[in-house]
Write a structure and sequence with these properties.
Elements: E1 6-15, H1 19-33, E2 37-50, E3 53-66
Antiparallel strand pairs: 1-3, 2-3
């Protein structure tokens, strides 16, 4: 089996509904411009608050994809 190299990028997805949708938004957006996505790892979850209420769920996600650089 040949050796492979993977690159990792960190993204922050947001949602007004849930952390799950925030994480999915990050992966969906990454898939639009990156090929061969392999692993997505949730690194951190937080919320934006206004007036003591949650207004946005945020998920910091690391996404890896096969590196095909020269």
């Amino acid at each position: 089996m040949a050796e492979n190299v993977y690159k990792v990028v960190e993204l922050v997805g947001t949602s007004e509904e849930s952390w799950e949708k925030a994480a999915a938004a990050a992966v969906t957006r990454a898939a639009e411009s990156l090929r061969d996505l392999r692993i997505a790892e949730i690194k951190e979850l937080d919320m934006q608050l206004e007036g003591g209420q949650v207004v946005t769920y945020r998920a910091k996600v690391s996404v890896s994809f096969k590196y095909e650089g020269s």
